[in-house]
């Protein structure tokens, strides 16, 4: 049965509409993983001699045990944001004579093969081999390594439990932050010395291997609890019955002032405010607005005038970037229905453009207090805002015609990479790198003021040519219409 599951997943991968793009992303992630492997391997090789040099009168293994608590906290936080539970498209299987236990065990077993579970071994194994070479007891070293592996798997399954309980909240990252932050605070203020408890536990396992049964029992308990949680969700009608709650439904009458695009604008605003994933675009507005405060108060950055434009583009265009890069994937859940209606595609796209352009203007106005740090900063933000409206809005909308990945709006927003493909990685070049490079070039050749003017002029040209650009963009979307319908119909 496991072989059959693997075959089904392989076919799903190679038949996906985003197959080519997924390969590119996986190659990039593979190189990224290789970097971490080399780093951990290097750490494992220098760990023993480094600890022996710094603490010549102490055993390196005991020193390492004393800091394992901090590693557990860091690993748990890192996994929460980056590791996802391996999933299958199980609904078709639920109509077949396939036992749910087999599906659950396969999914959980697959999670044990995660890269995050193997990564610590690249540091632990070289360290353990060094211990054996130095004459440490074989049984003690092996039991210690086994305990580390068990703790890695414990973190793996504990992460999934935390995710399952936090996925229903808008601020889904808060539980793991509160848990790890609380444990760290208790340890830091010596209320409960977790590093001593964890360190003593590993020391006990090293000295008496029989104690390895303790993490083994904890792992078994977490595994069965995860299996129980997954079984509850393995029903055809799972997720259909939702908690009924009162919705503050504004009629958004003011959108009628925008004419023919009003229905689409109203639809977008409701979509943004009523779904977890899209709400992140609203909260990102605050981050973008305050982004300049990270740099401008520092006198060192006051001299880096060429950098003002990058902050301006990012600060005034944060909603444009965060929302625009997933057009039209935001509507992927009902895209087929939308395309069967008697609507003008250009009006559908213009509503997106209008929403992004308005956000740029609002963010610029709210960012006027940056004048406190100097008129050049405000001037750079003004030029960047015009550039965002005239150029970046059109660029990001054109890039959206290549989107082929579906988005589940009900999933949590924090570090959710669903819908992310090669387009989202590449679009950053014309959005951020190009204006920064262009500004830097003219800043070097002519000066700050002229460079800002050139950037603003490009934006004005884009605004003047808006109608023609929208026709080009609309034609591109129409050409890709059926490809997107087919892609959004898949779970990729």
TrEMBL record:
What UniProt keywords apply to this chain's record, in alphabetical order? Membrane, Transmembrane, Transmembrane helix
The keyword Cell inner membrane belongs to this UniProt entry's keyword annotation: no
| Record-linked InterPro entries | DUF5687
Domain of life according to the entry: Bacteria
Pfam families hit by this protein: DUF5687
Q: Does the keyword Membrane apply?
A: yes
What residue intervals traverse the membrane? 27-48, 60-82, 103-129, 135-161, 173-198, 204-225, 280-296, 308-330, 351-372, 378-401, 422-442, 448-466
Descriptive protein name: DUF5687 family protein
This chain's source organism reads Neotamlana laminarinivorans
